[in-house]
Write a structure and sequence with these properties.
This protein is an alpha/beta fold and about 280 residues long. About 35% of the residues lie in helices and about 20% in strands. Strands 2-1-3-5-6-4 form a 6-stranded mixed sheet, with helices on both faces. A 6-stranded parallel sheet has the order 9-8-7-10-11-12, with helices on both faces. The longest helix has 17 residues, at about 240-255.
Amino acid sequence: MSRTPTTRATTALCGIVLHPASHTRSPAMHGAAFRAAGIDATYLAFDVPPESLSAAIAGARALGMRQLAVSLPHKEAVMHHLDVIDPVARRIGAVNTVTLREGRLEGSNTDWSGAVRALERETALDAARAVVLGAGGTARAMVHGLRERGAQVTVLNRTPERAQALAAELGAVAGGPLTALGETPHDVLVNTTSVGLHDDASPVPAEAIAPEAVVMDAVYEPERTRFLRDAEARGARTVTGRWMLVYQAAEQFELWTGKKAPVQAMAAAFDATGNA
């Protein structure tokens, strides 16, 4: 039986802001990383509705919080409350990591690299025909990451105008409605919408998924969403949101601590939380 770590006045405070907060596994993963690395820190989840984000960031600043992860629905809005935003996060237009450095809150984005590392467990991305479903902060990170790896990217969204704007801004080749998937050839397909997080649903019909594609869902709770089950039934290879979450969290850990992240300990904590 593991002991609860002792919290002292010198214990560094880290956490995650999101809404709702019931599904997050970040505290378990980062807590496991801190223990494995011998770092005196604690990590908490804060349920922050959109109207309270400004106050929450002001509170984090006042408390001297060392790092905050930022999740839905705050990845774009949080940028207005920071002192510095790194060039990659600014290009993406979304921040998922806020780190305190010399009294300033600095915004970064580790979603994009976490996502491509997860996909690269299954396939090479250079010259791949990729389709991203959604047009929010996670979609922006995904499009940037795929373009960085040399993929050709199409963005589809329930509101086509948002897809078209994102595609034009980040160098994707087109944009359109979700219903266009069946007519859009794809080697890689990624869902970044929240469909499947709160219900057993998929953002697209199963028959629109290419059987030979690699399919990833950024939703990780539940780990095997309807979208992924449909893809498997079509014969596609699938990547759960587990590895995207683990890899982006590992890079957050490294941003703050300067130490190599204990990735396997973080993945094990993800699994243990899901089985609790």
